[in-house]
Structure formats: C-alpha cells, structure tokens
Amino acid sequence: MPSGADRERADRERADLKRPDLEWADRERADLRRPDLEWAVQVAEAALTLDAAEAGALVRRLAAPPAGRRWTALVDGGGVVMASMSDRDPGAGHIDLLAVHPDEQGRGLGRRLVRAAEEWLRGQGATQARFAGNPPCYAWPGIDVRYTAAACLAESLGYERHHVAWNMTADLTSADLSTEGDVTGLAARGVAVRAADTAADRERVAAFVREHWNERWAWEAANAAGLHYAERDGEPLAFAAWGARPAWFGPMGTAPAARGLGVGRVLLRRCLADLRAAGYGSAQIGWVGPLRFYSRAVGARAERVFWLYRRDLA
C-alpha cells in the first residue's frame, strides 16, 4: 500500500496537470513560448511510452518547422496536440502529435483535442485531416500500431486507414559498420567520401539534394544532426543523413551517375557509426522503401509499423 506521503505526492502531480486551457496560437517558423513548450514536453514524455527518450526532441522539432508551414499547438490540462498545414498541399491538414498524460487518459481529453485540431485546420482551409507525417518535419509516418488507443480513437472519430508505412531497426551493438576497404576502393575510382562538417558543405549538399530529389529532402539534409556525402571531381554524387527527425536515420539518395559503386552502403554505415558513437544501441531507419538494401547492408529488420489515417472535413 502506498504511504501517506506517496499519496500526497500523487495528488500534487495530478493537481499540477489541471492547468488552464491555453489559447490556440498560429505560428510560422516560431517557437512556442518557453513555459508552453516545456509543458508540452513534460506531457509528451509521460504519454509517449514508445518514444519517451526522444519525446522532448520531437516537440521541439515540430515547433521549428521549415518555411511555408503554418502550425499550432494546444495544451489542455494533461494533453497536447500539434497540427500543421503546408503551402505545398493546401488542402491537407496534419495532426502531427497527440499526447495525453496517463493520469488523464480515458476521460475524453484526446477526443476533445483532436476536434480542436480539426477546427483549426478547417479554419486554415484544410479539406482533409490526416494522422500522417507532414514531411520533412514530422514525428512519425502515421500512428504506430502499438499505440492502440490512438488508432482506436482515430477510427472512432471517422478516420479511415488508407496506407501503411514501416521502419527498419538496425542493431548497432552487432552490426558491421566498417567502411575502410570500401572507401579505399572508391578513392581508386575517383570518389571521395566526406562528412558535411561546415555550413558551406551543407549548403552544397542540400543544393544537390534539391536538384536531384526535392525540397523536403533538402531541408532534412540541411537540418540533420549528421550528414555524409560522396563526390567526384568536386561534384556531389550521393548523400545520407541522420537526426533530421530526432534519432532516426534518413533520408539518403544516390544520383544515377554513382549507382552500382556501393556508395550508399558506405554512407549508411558512416551515419549509423555516428549514431553508435552518440550512445545509441539501435537505429530506426524511417519510412523505409528498399527493405533488401538495408537488410543486406547492416542486417536491419522490418519492425515498426504505422497506419496512416485520413478524414474529410465538412
């Protein structure tokens, strides 16, 4: 049985959650006011049990999105929701993060927050709301199937499941991340592998990514915690990044001129070696396409599954 002191402490913690509702505030390339941000972090860390270690970083990342994005956040009692709209897709609204403190779950707070998010999205011109990542700045591709209560909530509110995405997991404690022999072989073919350690390097690689892929990947490359690239005669050929979405690997890409050289495997391993050096025992390879490449390159396995939901807004 809990002691009197334990009961008093629990009562104080529950009382602390009964904060006044905060007004919606439209934001564009701005930070939440510091007390609001820290409160959202506290709720997210308690509620997002599968992502507790990076929950705070997720909130802060969503609060610092790229240009051309409108976003808002609401903290209501022990719950927080963050939603966004992007200029590139003006009809699509995204519910980026929903978290309800365990002490407040089961009381309809999540439902109230989702409805409030929908109202804000509707006011911004959205014709559809999505429980789906809003790249390049997102928390997850969709709802992790292990957050069953969130999936049930979405379906009870009329959201339809329309797509599935998945991550792969690389065990950094056992994966072979060696690259020395491959780097030597590439050098013999005139290809150098480098880390983008300077602002000028990042700008150059981001321009390459923008030219060959899209603006979203370019933003991720520019904002990643770690960025590696290959070049020949001073021209980038391939890139790989990690930490644009906190603690995850990706994106990566190889231009047609460098395909078949093994550059992708080298860049992947260098990024994962960074993650291992930063203290991570495993790495999430987010929103995966080529399963076979990652499985063969680092022994990654398909593991984390996400359901993407959407609902038309009247």
Descriptive notes:
The protein is α+β, with helices and mostly antiparallel strands and 314 residues long. It contains 10 helices and 12 strands. It has helices spanning 4-17, 34-47, 55-62, 109-123, 148-156, 180-188, 199-212, 215-223, 263-277, 291-298; strands at residues 69-76, 79-86, 92-100, 128-131, 143-144, 160-171, 191-195, 226-232, 235-242, 248-254, 282-285, 301-312. Strands 1, 2, 3, 4, 5, 6, 7, 8, 9, 10, 11 and 12 form a 12-stranded mixed β-sheet that branches. Helix 2 (34-47) crosses helix 3 (55-62) and helix 7 (199-212) runs antiparallel to helix 8. The chain is elongated, with a radius of gyration of 21 Å. The relative contact order is 0.13.
| Rounded Rg | 21 Å
Total strands? 12
Helix and strand composition category: alpha+beta
Helicity level, as a percent range? 25-40%
The main pleated sheet reads as: 12 strands, mixed
> Could you give the distance between the termini?
51 Å
Unreliably modeled segments: 6-30
N-to-C order of helices and strands: HHHEEEHEEHEHEHHEEEHEHE
Gross morphology is: elongated
Give the mean pLDDT.
90
Strand content: 25-35%
Task: Please tally the helical runs, counting DSSP H or I stretches of 4 or more residues.
Answer: 10
Task: Describe the structure in brief.
With 314 residues, this protein is of the alpha+beta class.
Topology:
Layout: H1 4-17, H2 34-47, H3 55-62, E1 69-76, E2 79-86, E3 92-100, H4 109-123, E4 128-131, E5 143-144, H5 148-156, E6 160-171, H6 180-188, E7 191-195, H7 199-212, H8 215-223, E8 226-232, E9 235-242, E10 248-254, H9 263-277, E11 282-285, H10 291-298, E12 301-312
Parallel strand pairs: 3-4, 10-11
Antiparallel strand pairs: 1-2, 2-3, 4-12, 5-12, 6-11, 6-12, 7-8, 8-9, 9-10
Helix pairs in contact: 2-3, 7-8
